[in-house]
Each structure stands twice: as C-alpha cells, then as structure tokens.
Structure to design on (772 residues):
C-alpha cells in the first residue's frame, strides 16, 4: 500500500500521531526507559542485539544533567563521579514523575531527590527544576525524557547507519492513558513515532514465547500451552503478568502493577538511617543537597552489598554535624521495607487470581528487573508461587528491551526464514474504562484485563423526567467512585426525546483497537428506526490534558446532577 | 438454527454496526427487539461487502459472516471438543485474525473477526458459560448469546441469584419497553418490524 503523501495528525496535542500497524519499511527499535537505567535493542536480521554507546555500555543511566547550560543525558555524558548526578543539576527518575499531578503521593516521594520537585497540592503538574549556575531552572518530565530520547536516537542511528523513526517502548503496567500520552509526547518531541507502548512484563512474555517456540522446534515437541508468571521489579515500578504461551502466541491472561520499586526501598532505608531526613533536606540549600547526595550514595551502596552479604558497615559524615556509624543487617533492610515486599506479594496473588490460574499450573516463574538481585524479592516470588526454582533463561536487565525489539520487528512486518519472528502478543487492558453514572459511581464498560482489541457497549438511561441532555464523563481506574479514578474526557449528548426518567435508551460503546487507541461512542437509541434522529458522538480519548480533578469539579459545579445517567441493569 | 426465519444479529457488540449486503435482514435479538442501531460514518465499524461464500468454519470467513457461525463452527472444533482443543484452536485463529497480523487495509475486518473469536474462546473455555451456551444452542438461541453482556459484573453469581436476576432484568426490560411503546404511539412490535422491513 502506498503511503499517503501527507496526513493531518489529530489537533489534540495529547493524541500525538496516529499509531498504525501497517507494514513499514524500517525495523522499529525497542527502547526500555527505566526509572534508573535504560537500554536500546533491535532485531539485526537473525536475532535481537543490544546497542552500546560510545563507552561500550549496554545499560545507560537515565538522567539529564544541565551542566554549563547545555543539557546532556546519560547516553553521551560521562559522570566524573556519582555525586555529580546528585548535585541538583541532574534530573532523573523522570518515569516516576511523568504524567502525574502534584497531589500524587508518588510525586511527593520525589521531593527528597536532589533536584527540585515543588508541589502546591492543587492537582496540577509539579514544578520540576535543575540547579544551573545557582538558580533553579524549570523543566518538565516530558522535556527531560525527550532530551534523553534524542541521545538514544542519535546513538542508534550512528550504529545502525540509518535514520530511526519508529520505536516500541516499554511502560509500567500501572500507567494510565494520560501518562501514555505524555510518553508519546516526549517521543514526538524527540522526532520518534511510537509504534507500540508495551507493558514491561508483556515484553518479557514475548521473549519467553520466542524461547519456548525455539525449544519446541528443537525438541519436536507438541507445542502445548505453557503458563508463565513474570515478576518485574525495577527502580520505579513493580509489574506482574501471567501469560499463556503456545506456538509463538503470547496470550496475556492478567496484569497487575504498582508504582513501588527500588526507589522506595532506597528512600525507606535513608529515612531509617536518618529519621529526620525530610526536615533536614526540606529547603534544598546547597549544603543540604550535598548531604542528601552523600546519604543517597551510601545507602544505595549498602543495599547493593546486602544482596550478597548479610551485613554491611556504614560510616558516613554528612558534613552538617550528623554522622552515621552503624552496621546494617539484611534482616533490618527486609524489616524496614516489609510493606513494600508485602505489596509485591499482593500483586503476585492478585495477578494469579485474575488470570484464573492455579499455582500448580504455572510452568515457569520469571523474575526480572533491577531488584531481582535482592534475595528477599526472589524469596517472596518463589514462596508466593510455591516453588523452588526460578526460570533461568533470561538476563534480568535485558529481557524487557529484548521483548520490545522483537515486537518492533514483528510490528514492522519483518519475517524471519527460521520462524523466529512468528510471534504474536494478545494484549489486555491494564485498567478498567467506564463512565460516571448512578450518582458519583464509576461504571466500567471495558473491565480490567479485557483482551484487546475490544468493543463493549452498555445501555444507560436518564436520571430525571424530561431530561434532554446527558453528560458522558469517561474515567479510567479501579475505584468504585469516580473521584478515585482518572478522568479521560467528557462530552455531552443532546436531543434525548422528552420522556419519563428511565425510559430513554442511551447507548455508550467503547472501542479499543490493537494498538490501544480508545474511542468512545454515545448516542440516543431511537426505537424502531435505523437512523438515529441525532447523530452519535465519537470521541477519541483521552481529551483532558492537565489538572485531572479540576475539570470534573468544574462540571460538577456547573451542572450538578442535572445531566446524570443511570445504568440499565440488563443481564440478558 | 434460525429464529423466526430471520438472521439474528451477532452477540455482544452488535448494536453498533452497518447494514452489510441487503440479503441479510437485521433484527434485534429476540429478547430485545428495540435495541438495534444502525448508523453510518465510522470506518471502525465499516464492513466490506464480500462475496465470500459461507464456509463451514472460520478458516475462510472474515467480517460479518462469522456472526452467523456457532462458536464451535467458528473455532472449527466439534461440540464435544476438549479445553485443550479450544485453546489450540483459539491460538491458531488468533495468529490468523489478530489485527497485528492482518494485511494492510483489512484491519477493521480482522478486528471484528478476532473479537468474535475471542468471545467464542472466552465462552467455551469457561465450563459454566459453555454449559449455558450449549443449553441456549439447543434452543436455537445461540446466535444471540453474549457471554460478556450477561455476566458483566457478577462473576461468582450463584445459580439461584442468577435466575432471580434473569427474571428481574426481564421484568424491568418489559416495563421499560412498555413505557417506550407508549412514547412511540402504541406501535406494536410487529408493526415496528413491518416498518423496518419496508424501510429496507
């Protein structure tokens, strides 16, 4: 099919470019932008290859530093020492900040980082700034991410000797649609077109599917279905997936995820070692930043050592009068972070439950991500899955990016003579999508873990007699009340024929295609005729671009419950 | 297999569709005669009019035709098929019809087929839903069956409450319909259907 001469992208900044799954001339690269580290991989014609930067690194630190007014990221920049990254001039952990508002607890947890994260707690994006020439210079997570992506792109172009435009990115399971639009925005700023955003454990699942298919080929086996549980814990997020694999098809059965990770372990330990850390570092003075950096490096180092040793001495002079001299034991580390580990266990159990899979039926348990080296993490997954051995065929740090590269090749329409790319991922929705109805309730139309593509429809009716207009307010999340969920957008349908409440039939249909684009259709169903009197509405979501809570509050102020909807109980 | 001599429109997601070729007369499902909407304009819902002859299994069928097949026919397995066969057939059809592997320009068509295959798999791989589906199929109602719409929110529903809610929802539906009927000038269901036929 000839490519169109030009296309007009959607007007909305959020939606970015149209994602298409049509054949493309070039192989999309896979990028894993981690909270702490990132990597790039590509299908080289026979296998997946990780790209290296000029310093021969496959794993690059995810940060951008604003030294000498010129931003440079962890791909090209060489830190003279770890403290340079903690001087306030470098911005990192962007993945924990992107697409979040300043009332989000995850954003608040970022306030103890050396660069400036200022919150006003009113539901807008936080103020983020780097220390440049003794002044806080503001930036945004998208911008920082874009600078970083430009460096990655340049690195890949240099090595592959061709322009790079299409990418497959891995994302945390817990990311909402609004956050995905921010990632797409960052990519667009870097001149990259997102072919697919892939939840991290589903990328690992695809790699597993490929490995299983190769094993089956080698053994001439029956190719029966294999079930794997994938646990991926990085610096910023923990994700779990259950996948059922056969013949190169990875059917994602359930996903669970949360914004907890190594960063939480680190901050908990910092608070444990220095209980008044928050008050000591609250004003971000130069000396405070320095002390904070010292503590961070020492704690990080100690946690790393506790993966192989049972105890580690800490001798630290923070320079402001406080000194820390103690021996830290592994049990202490595990006790201080008990809640984080408990949450991890909950995610595993929840995912198994949602997948409707018995623990005995799981063939392989795969633990990946930076935190997979922590003994407690391995222990909790093995005990939650009631087994002795973990799957060994994967590099824990490279699995996700390799899966993304495979998806990039498959989605680019590349085929492999040996069948190594005869792969398919059947994805599922990570969060429920629904509308506000029955008072302030969230009524899911596409439930969580629904296979994509999906199209679901539900009928609603009016809440008042002779109500002629109704608001369709679309949310995403798991809470029963709309306030607990993320607003995606809203629109009004008009022309409802005057009738007693409960009589009109208002149909709301949601359509998610294979590349996760959401469209919402709504309109009044006219009885006994084909042509609706009023045209239906079709809205591509999300449409809100900031201040999630504000729009809903404003709608509530302006209309109260006058344009409400009630769900029609129809089970048959 | 047919009901009242009319083809019943496909299951769960069928209210948003286009008229295909005129040989198919769409009525709403027998249980809910008022609910069919046809509206033009969206490529997502567009369906190519194909001259594909009806085949016995989904292997040669895409687009709307799949709505006429039973879930067993769609997956190409016997009605006695085991769970293993269902899973295998599902994965094979997914490889064939998932929009990711569709030829360019036929994505919508493949998407529709895949959604239907997915529905068949979800129904037949759940012993309880499969039992209900088999029961309905024996009565010739399977084409109107929708696993998801029935059990939208209550997975662990027990048999007893299931019956109760069936009755309740039927009652409330009847009540609502009678209100609607009034608003349509007391036109009977038959009259509406006749008009519909004329309009075609």
């Amino acid at each position: 099919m000839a490519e169109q001469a030009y296309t007009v992208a959607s007007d909305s900044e959020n939606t970015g470019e149209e994602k298409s799954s049509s054949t493309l001339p070039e192989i999309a690269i896979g990028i894993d932008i981690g909270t702490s580290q990132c990597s790039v991989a590509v299908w080289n014609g026979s296998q997946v290859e990780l790209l290296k930067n000029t310093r021969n690194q496959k794993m690059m630190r995810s940060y951008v530093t604003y030294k000498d007014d010129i931003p440079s990221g962890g791909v090209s920049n060489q830190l003279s020492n770890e403290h340079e990254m903690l001087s306030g001039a470098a911005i990192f952990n962007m993945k924990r900040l992107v697409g979040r508002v300043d009332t989000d607890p995850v954003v608040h947890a970022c306030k103890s980082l050396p660069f400036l994260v200022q919150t006003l707690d009113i539901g807008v994006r936080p103020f983020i700034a780097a220390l440049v020439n003794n002044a806080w210079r503001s930036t945004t997570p998208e911008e920082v991410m874009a600078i970083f992506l430009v460096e990655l792109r340049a690195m890949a172009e240099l090595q592959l000797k061709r322009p790079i435009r299409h990418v497959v990115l891995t994302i945390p399971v817990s990311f909402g649609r609004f956050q995905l639009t921010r990632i797409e925005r960052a990519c667009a700023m870097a001149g990259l077109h997102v072919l697919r955003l892939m939840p991290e454990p589903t990328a690992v699942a695809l790699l597993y599917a490929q490995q299983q298919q190769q094993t089956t080929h080698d053994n001439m086996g029956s190719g029966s279905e294999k079930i794997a549980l994938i646990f991926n814990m990085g610096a910023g997020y923990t994700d779990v997936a259950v996948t059922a694999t056969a013949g190169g098809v990875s059917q994602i059965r359930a996903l669970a995820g949360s914004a907890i990770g190594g960063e939480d372990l680190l901050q908990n330990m910092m608070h444990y070692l220095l209980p008044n850390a928050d008050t000591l570092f609250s004003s971000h003075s130069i000396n405070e930043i320095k002390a904070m950096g010292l503590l961070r490096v020492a704690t990080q180092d100690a946690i790393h050592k506790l993966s192989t040793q049972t105890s580690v001495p800490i001798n630290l002079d923070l320079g402001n009068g406080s000194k820390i001299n103690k021996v830290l034991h592994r049990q202490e580390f595990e006790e201080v972070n008990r809640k984080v580990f408990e949450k991890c266990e909950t995610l595993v159990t929840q995912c198994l439950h949602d997948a409707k899979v018995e623990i005995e039926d799981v063939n392989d348990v795969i633990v990946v991500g930076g935190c997979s080296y922590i003994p407690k993490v391995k222990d909790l997954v093995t005990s939650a899955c009631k087994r002795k051995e973990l799957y060994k065929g994967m590099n824990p740090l490279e699995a996700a990016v390799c899966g993304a590269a495979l998806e990039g090749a498959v989605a680019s329409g590349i085929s492999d003579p040996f069948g190594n790319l005869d792969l398919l991922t059947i994805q599922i929705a990570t969060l429920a999508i629904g509308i506000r109805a029955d008072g302030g309730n969230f009524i899911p139309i596409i439930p969580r873990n629904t296979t994509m593509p999906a199209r679901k429809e539900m009928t609603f009716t009016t809440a008042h007699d002779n109500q002629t207009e109704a608001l369709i307010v679309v949310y995403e999340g798991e809470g029963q009340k709309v306030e607990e969920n993320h607003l995606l957008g809203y629109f009004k349908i008009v022309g409802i024929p005057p009738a007693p409440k409960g009589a009109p039939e208002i149909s709301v249909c949601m359509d998610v295609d294979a590349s996760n684009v959401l469209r919402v259709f709504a309109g009044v169903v006219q009885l006994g005729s084909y042509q609706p009197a009023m045209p239906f509405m079709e809205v591509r979501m999300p449409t809100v671009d900031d201040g999630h809570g504000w729009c809903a509050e404003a709608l509530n102020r302006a209309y109260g419950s006058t344009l409400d909807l009630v769900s029609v109980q129809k089970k048959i | 297999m047919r009901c009242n001599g009319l083809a019943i429109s496909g299951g769960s997601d069928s209210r948003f569709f286009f008229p295909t070729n005129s040989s198919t007369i769409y009525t709403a499902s027998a249980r809910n005669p008022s609910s069919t909407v046809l509206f033009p304009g969206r490529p997502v819902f567009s369906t190519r009019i194909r001259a594909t002859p009806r085949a016995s299994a989904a292997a040669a069928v895409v687009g709307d035709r799949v709505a006429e097949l039973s879930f067993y026919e769609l997956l190409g397995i016997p009605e006695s098929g085991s769970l293993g066969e269902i899973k295998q057939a599902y994965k094979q059809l997914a490889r064939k019809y998932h929009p990711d592997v569709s030829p360019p320009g036929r994505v919508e068509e493949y998407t529709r087929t895949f959604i239907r295959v997915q529905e068949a798999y979800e129904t037949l791989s759940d012993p309880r839903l499969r039992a209900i589906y088999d029961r309905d199929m024996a009565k010739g109602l399977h084409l109107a069956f929708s696993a998801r719409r029935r059990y939208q929110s209550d997975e662990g529903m027990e048999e007893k409450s299931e019956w109760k809610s069936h009755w309740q929802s039927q009652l409330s539906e009847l009540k609502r319909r009678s209100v609607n009927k009034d608003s349509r000038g007391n036109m009977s269901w038959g009259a509406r259907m006749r008009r519909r036929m004329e309009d075609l």
In short: Residues 1-152 of chain B form a domain with the Helix Hairpins fold (CATH 1.10.287.110). Chain B has seven helices and two strands.
